[in-house]
Amino acid sequence: MEIRSDIDREIILLEQIEQDPDVTQASLAAQLGVAVGTVNWLLRRMIEKGYVKIKRAQRRKLKYIITPEGLAFRAQLTMNYIDTSMRLYRRTRQHVGELLVEVKKAGYNSVSIAGDGDIADIIRLTCLEQGVAVLDGPLDPATPAAGDGVPVIEVSGTKLHLNMHHPAREEQ
Question: In CATH, which of 3.30.160.60, 3.40.50.2000, 1.10.10.10, 3.40.50.2300 is domain 6-66?
Fold first, then answer.
């Protein structure tokens, strides 16, 4: 599981500590996909801010406790994450809707999607709702497939591009 930002890491770290106060830094590092030193740094930062407390359970064993401030902080991080995700979702749906208007104006009722992941899933959902078929298949003009000869919505990260250029159509 790849975690992209310190905020994502902090949310997961706080959730894991809440679920298991006896969790080790090594297991947190494995869950976050980072080095133990990074987990140590994140924990120290949260301790300084008053979000987490450390209690010595045994000679070499530590127990992490989320403070009320830490619970409030985690709730705020989660709300911010949801808000950001929903804005991206709505913006993507709006953009796809605009691209589908162009597709329909050009006389098409189907598209192909070049890319995958959550953004591609949002495109598929929007196409379904707009009555535009999504054709799957290779987009290489040398390889005939159901998706050839239709507009392609290309996904690059969170950016979308509509490609109406179709070499297979132009050769006919």
Answer: 1.10.10.10
